[in-house]
Amino acid sequence: MIKYYRKKLSLCCYLVILLSFATQPIEAQNKLDDYIKQGIESNQSIKQQSFILERNVYALGEAKSMFLPNVSFSTTYTKADGGRTIDFPTGDLLNNVYSTLNQMTGSSSFPQLENQSILLNPDNFYDAKFRITQPILNAELGYNKKIKSKQIDLQKTEIVLYKRELVKEIKTAYYNYLKATNATKIYQSYLKLVSEGERVNKKLFDNGKINRTSVIRSQNEVSKINASIIASQKTEESAQYYFNFLLNRPLTDTILVDDINTLPDDAQLFNENVTNREELSKLKISKDINNDLTGLAKSYLIPKIGANLDLGSQGFDWKFNQKNRYYLLGISLEWNLFAFGKNTYRIKQSIAENQAITSQTDYVQQQLLTELKVRQANMESAVAQYKAAQSQLKTSQTYYGDMAKLYKEGMTIYIELLDAQNQWIDAQLKSNITLFDTWIAYTAIERANASFNIQ
Question: In the record, which residues are listed under signal peptide (predicted)?
Answer without folding.
Answer: 1-28
